[in-house]
């Protein structure tokens, strides 16, 4: 039997789905991060979008966001630069905390950008569609979201800023 399959079967009783669904504001140039414990080989699925302050008009450039998802060892799984919405659906290769950060585009004077975000993680690619019904997501989301958010905000914001600085620096050097 393949090792991967054996691990999957052994870990079945411990499988869980976690979900966060929140709406929050970010001031121009600022970053906010959320973290989530994710099991190795689990699927993690996220969707985010900026709430357009002037419905029916294109989203102004200064309301666009930069988004990045990292593992605990700072492997980057997802990155989007100045977008108004996006999503990711992937299988993580590392056990433990992952963090997702949003940074609002800079603007003077500062404005608030509202982001809506939904994050679900759990099980494997195969099990996912069976287990992650809307109900199971709804049950867990409200209790968890704000709590996790408050707890990890500071540390991850710092890591994210460092990450942006380092990657920005490398991109500048390369060009
Ligand atoms: C953004 O919203 C926060 C509270 O949600 C508020 O304290 C802050 O003053 C707002 N910033 C701007 C620029 O409106």
What do you see in this structure?
- The protein is globular and about 40 Å long.
- It is α+β, with helices and mostly antiparallel strands.
- The longest helix has 41 residues, at 134-174.
- 33% of the residues lie in helices and 39% in strands.
- The protein has a single domain (8-174), classed as GOLD domain (Jelly Rolls).
- It is built from three helices and eight strands; from the N terminus they run αββββββββαα.
- It has helices at 3-11, 125-131, 134-174, and strands spanning 17-27, 31-38, 43-50, 65-71, 76-83, 85-91, 96-104, 112-122.
- It has a four-stranded antiparallel sheet with strand order 1-8-3-6.
- 2-acetamido-2-deoxy-beta-D-glucopyranose is lined by residues 25, 27, 110-112.
């Amino acid at each position: 039997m393949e090792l991967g399959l054996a691990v999957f079967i052994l870990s079945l009783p411990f499988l869980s789905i976690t979900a966060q669904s929140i709406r929050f504001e970010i001031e121009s140039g600022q970053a906010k991060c959320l973290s989530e414990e994710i099991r190795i080989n689990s699927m993690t699925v996220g969707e985010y979008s900026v709430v357009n302050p002037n419905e029916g008009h294109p989203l102004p450039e200064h309301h666009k966001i930069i988004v990045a998802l990292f593992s605990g060892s700072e492997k980057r799984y997802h990155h989007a630069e100045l977008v108004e919405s996006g999503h990711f659906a992937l299988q993580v290769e590392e056990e433990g905390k992952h963090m997702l950060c949003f940074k609002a585009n800079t603007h003077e004077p500062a404005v608030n950008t509202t982001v809506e975000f939904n994050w679900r993680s759990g099980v494997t690619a195969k099990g996912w569609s069976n287990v992650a019904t809307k109900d199971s997501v709804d049950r867990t989301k409200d209790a968890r979201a704000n709590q996790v958010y408050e707890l990890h905000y500071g540390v991850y914001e710092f890591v994210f800023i460092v990450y942006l600085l380092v990657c920005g620096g490398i991109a500048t050097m390369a060009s």
